[in-house]
Write a structure and sequence with these properties.
The protein is α/β, with parallel strands linked by helices. It folds into 2 domains: about 10-70, no CATH class; about 80-390, Alkaline Phosphatase, subunit A (3-Layer(aba) Sandwich), CATH 3.40.720.10. It is built from 16 helices and 14 strands. It has helices at about 10-15, 25-30, 45-65, 65-70, 100-105, 125-135, 135-140, 155-160, 240-245, 250-255, 260-295, 315-320, 335, 360-370, 435-450, 460-475; strands at about 80-85, 110-115, 115-120, 165-170, 190, 215-220, 300-305, 340-345, 350-355, 355-360, 390-395, 400-405, 405-410, 415-420. An 8-stranded mixed beta sheet has the order 5-4-6-1-7-8-2-9, with helices on one face. A 4-stranded antiparallel beta sheet has the order 11-12-13-14, covered by helices on one side. The chain has a two-stranded parallel ribbon with strand order 3-10.
């Protein structure tokens, strides 16, 4: 009659004592709305028993309370996704990093922290495309700056709208716009210049207590050209900061002069980058204070992550080969290992998880947490019921990477590198293991073979020229 499930009686008892904001016991509110959290959901296969449950539900609605009328809060949880563009996991304090981020540190005290999360791509468009669709970039089609998102795949916003959600999008990143079709499904879209700051423009009037919402916010604070309040500069004089931040152009800033000391310039740039994270922490606190003031956090699933990291002198070989200081034009971990912090509805949980996660898994995880089903076949899986054997990063121009267990293969297209991440986390010393390298390379080829050539739509020429100017500002071309 019942499907076997893992059941923690102590946690279940704690959960039954919780109440809705209007005083209604949470278990009643969820049970009689037909929405029990996935951890305590029993799959009932007996139709007569199902009929009895429906009668009990109806009796409580008619005789005892009507949640829809008495509660000012939506019974469906809100979804808040904070995209910290270009933020590397290794620099955040909860990952052992040196950045001082008091707000994020406090917030993370009651969250699940995933220490082995990777991006499926090393730049903005394909990474966001995969997060929103749950499929690899070679399927959703957004693997080039002149492409558009494949209409065959529903986005997270489209799926949530079908479930009655309002959807709002704020971004400082010009990539995330209608021209790429990546904001499909959002009711409200707001592009904010990063010099103004997206945290100053978020308006809670679009977010209602009595209707569930998806709020997506993209911060570009840690993406070059940097936006830093000078008061947040980390032990660096204004003169030093000006020398690094305000040269003539992005590529001029990034290039290494022959007479510059490698370690000295690396130290300076890391100071600047850490300062951007500390300023980002201030911006995050502004956003969450706005949401808290309107009482919009109580019934919310919050996800904080990044689309990719940044190479800042992390691999001396690549820095000298490519002659640049900053960028994310590689598949080393400084670029593709990302933070993933999730505040669940049972928000007293605080734990670290070390299983492999891809940002492909974000959408399926959200839907399982909400109790909604996705019928389509996706490459992503819910992190609650699926243990990944491997993760990949796909980039047609810069190379692909596959991580399995302690081993990582990078296929640069003209050569390969194999690393033991346990013994060599900084990826400085490739190892020789031809059989393992061949097996991992074969797996990468299988994934790349599944390319969706049925959809390869490009944007119009006028849009292409307009986006080229934006890309130059960000240093991509």
């Amino acid at each position: 009659m019942f499907e076997k499930i893992k059941f923690n009686l102590k946690k279940f008892r704690e959960w039954t004592k919780r109440k809705e904001p209007d005083g209604t016991p949470l278990w009643k509110a969820l049970f009689f709305q037909g929405r029990i959290p996935w951890r305590y959901k029993v799959i009932i296969k007996n139709n007569r028993f199902n009929g009895l449950i429906k009668k009990i539900r109806h009796k409580y609605y008619v005789n005892n309370f009507d949640i829809k009328k008495e509660s000012s809060f939506s019974p469906k949880p809100n979804i808040i996704i904070i995209m910290m563009d270009t933020v590397r996991a290794k620099d955040l304090p909860m990952y052992g990093g040196r950045a001082k981020m008091p707000f994020l540190s406090k917030f993370a005290n009651k969250t699940r922290i995933y220490t082995q999360a990777y991006s499926v791509a090393n730049w903005t468009l394909p990474s966001h495309g995969s997060l929103f669709t749950g499929v690899y970039p070679n399927k959703h089609g957004l693997d080039g700056w002149d492409k558009q998102l494949n209409k065959s795949y529903k986005t997270l916003a489209e799926r949530l709208k079908e479930e009655g959600y309002s959807t709002t999008f704020y971004t400082e990143n010009p990539f995330l716009c209608e021209k790429y079709d990546i904001i499909r499904g959002f009711d409200k879209y707001h592009y904010v210049d990063k010099d103004i700051g997206v945290d100053t423009k978020i308006d809670t009037k679009y977010l209602k207590k009595n209707k569930p919402f998806l709020l997506f916010v993209n911060f570009m604070t840690a993406h070059f050209p940097y936006r830093i309040n000078l008061s947040f500069l980390n032990k660096m004089s204004r003169k030093e900061a000006n020398e690094l931040l305000f040269r003539s152009d992005y590529f001029g800033v990034r290039k290494i002069k022959n007479n510059e000391d490698y370690l000295k310039i690396k130290k300076k740039w890391n100071k600047v980058y850490l300062s951007t994270l500390e300023y980002l922490d201030f911006q995050l606190s502004n956003v969450f204070n706005k949401l808290k003031k309107k009482d919009l956090l109580k019934n919310s699933l919050v996800i904080m992550t990044s689309d990719h990291g940044e190479q800042i002198f992390d691999n001396e070989k690549i820095t000298k080969q490519r002659d640049f200081v900053l960028g994310h034009y590689c598949c080393y971990n400084s670029t593709i290992k990302i933070p993933l912090i999730i505040k669940h509805l049972d928000n007293n949980i605080s734990k670290e998880y070390t299983n492999l996660i891809s940002n492909l898994d974000v959408m399926p995880t959200i839907f399982q947490e909400l109790g909604f089903k996705i019928k389509d076949k996706l490459d992503g899986h819910s992190i609650f019921d699926y243990q990944r054997d491997f993760v990949v990063c796909l980039n047609p121009n810069e190379g692909d990477a596959l991580i399995k267990g302690n081993y990582k293969l990078i296929d640069h297209h003209n050569k390969t590198e194999l690393f033991n991440l346990k013994e060599d986390p900084l990826e400085k010393n490739p190892i020789a293991n031809k059989q393992l390298e061949s097996d991992l390379l074969q797996k990468l080829k299988e994934i790349n073979k599944d390319y969706d050539i049925s959809f390869n739509k490009k944007m119009s020429k006028s849009d292409e020229l307009q986006m080229k100017e934006k890309l130059k500002e960000l240093g991509y071309i």
